[in-house]
Amino acid sequence: MTGVSASRIAWYGRRLGRMSPAEIAWRAREQALRRAWRSRQVLPGLAAGSGPLTTAEALAGRRFTAILPPEVAGRVPEAARAAIIADADRLLKGEWEMLGAVRTDMVQPDWFWDPVTGRRSSPQTYAFALNQRDEAAVGNIKQVWEISRLQHLSLLAAAWFLTGQEAYAQRVADQLRSWLRENPFLSGVNWTSGIEVGVRLISLAWIRRLLDSWPGVVALFERSDTTVRQIRWHQEYLAAFESRGSSANNHVIAEAAGQLAASCAFPWFPESERWRRDAVSLLSRSLANNTFPSGINRELASDYHGFVFELGVVAAAEAAAAGTPVPAETWRLLCSMADATAAMADCRVRPPRQGDSDEGRVVLLDAPAHNRWPALLALGDGVFGRLPWWPPVPQDAGSVFTAALAGRIQDGRVQDDRVREVSGRPSARPSRFADAGLTILRTDPADSPELWCRCDGGPHGFLSIAAHAHADALSVEVRHDGVDVLADPGTYCYHGEPEWRSYFQSTIGHNTVEVDGRWQSVRGGAFLWLRHAAGREVSVLDDGAVASWTADHDGYRPAVHRRSVRLDRAARVVEITDEITGGAREVRIAFHLGPEVMATMIAGGADGDAAAAASLAWPDAVTPGAAELSLPAGLDWSLHRGETEPILGWYSAGLGHRVPSFTLLGQGLPRGPLVTRLKFAESEAR
């Protein structure tokens, strides 16, 4: 491994150790295929020979039939329409924000430039010779990949569909031709990941669909040898390189969804029927493998739950429009994911902040928002129909368009505009997902402001590497009317800033207990876990007045951490009790506050039996509030905010964003149970 650092070699060794013998054999075959495909690389600027594509017979067979009837545009609510046009106009000016970076070069973007580091990767390098994790070579790869998903072009295409203004369509055509020309087969970093290839195919299908009535669309797609070859290359890539084994998480679902969408929308090749059949099988199988029976995604990362749900619905809608639907069981599973999405949301339709988040979306048909949960629920409502206990959300362009597509469109008309009926849906809002170890304790909807508490007593993550997990066993989140009071700090970054990545994944970076200076789970890299703490819910009880949850985990074996959380609805109090068994242990407990919450340390607590307490207030929130946090005796408590040596006291609303926030840190050698009591100020008036 000439030129590979010792640390990189060590990482490869750890990664290999998380694979089964079958996966190792498969990866060896894949590496051999990658070496063999070097001869297939097409360099930028060179003509690509891929068979005759301009014969009259070939052109006659190239049609795009899964279009949206023009009247669908009229169903888009005015607020969504105005937001789309406003963002499309920003794009025409060259302005856009992606993953925390504001770009001003969007008139003619550089597809290989990272605006965060200023680095530019080589467009000529053979894709499989690039190390996408090497920031020195490729920059922040998430920034580079994000623009090459071409989702800003699907937004511009949506603006065209709604307004018919030529500028939107022309900008799409110019930039699409640029990308296709500058990223030929296997050249450059945009060919290094199957998930990117799959998502890009979905964008291409929607761009073609939304531009259908634009006079130049056939020349841009069906009559363009470059476009047709690219669509074929993308599908050949996905057919050859499938994420398997320890990598068969959301990546394989994106690959299957992209292949299914493209083979249905662009059935122009001899292999299209086989690709479609294989993609339906892979998507259905992988969705089942990646989802608990309760409907929660097995990666236990809330953001990826939404991403996988959207992938499944969008791909299934393409299959329905093509007359080759996915199995009924797949639709049922997607419906269970929609109901789980509704059940987890707080009163402001915000999801839990569990595990990794990169704000991934499948196709951009609406103005982007940091909180995608309302859009996901609108999508679920449009396809399956909302249940009475779902939080109300407005429809948007994405939900209107996808629901119309899922209704199967023939001869320019929606054949079945009804929602899909799925039996066995929950008649009341679930609060516990036992298979996922996820429990929500909350007050009654009529008893506002809402108290919402997410308790984590489940597995560490999915598959042997648990790629998107955090060391957060038994962590809690507490919200007051949607305001983060006890907050999960988030993710902030994936690549390029290892010390920050480590902090946001760490045990002390969550509202839980660290024992003897150890993380609960052992980390082997940014997306690699070598040992997983096993969480176990012990009891969940609810008598109406009080809801309680108890769980433990074995991450500190032979010591065991057990935590109980009790919500007294009438008193408006959340009480957390921590016990460490197995002898005297040095502990640290962190309580991270949301960015809207101000904190001041005060002597003693309201009940007079706590060594310290903190006064909390969030006066500038939509619903102002205050609380007192009585802290466990026997520990030394300190208040931190925005510190870097070491990192402590930060909150990330999304990838690329971080702001200072308060963290309360207790440390010491406790002699008994540690009791924390969060009492909300409005309880005094009740």
Could you write a compact summary of the structure shown?
This protein is an alpha+beta fold. It has 18 helices and 27 strands.
Structure commentary:
Helix 14 (302-321) packs antiparallel against helix 15 and helix 15 crosses helix 16 (373-384). A hairpin with a 6-residue loop joins strand 19 (612-618) and strand 20 (625-631). The termini are far apart. The chain has an eight-stranded antiparallel β-sheet with strand order 13-14-15-16-27-20-19-18, with no helix packed on it. A five-stranded antiparallel β-sheet has the order 5-6-7-8-9, with no helix packed on it. A four-stranded antiparallel β-sheet has the order 10-17-26-21, with no helix packed on it. With 686 residues, it is an alpha+beta fold. Helices cover 33% and strands 19% of the residues. It contains 18 helices and 27 strands. The chain is globular, with a radius of gyration of 26 Å. The protein folds into three domains: 1-39; 69-414, Glycosyltransferase (Alpha/alpha barrel), CATH 1.50.10; 436-685, Beta-galactosidase, Chain A, domain 5, CATH 2.70.98.70. Residues 50-57 and 605-610 have low confidence and may be disordered.
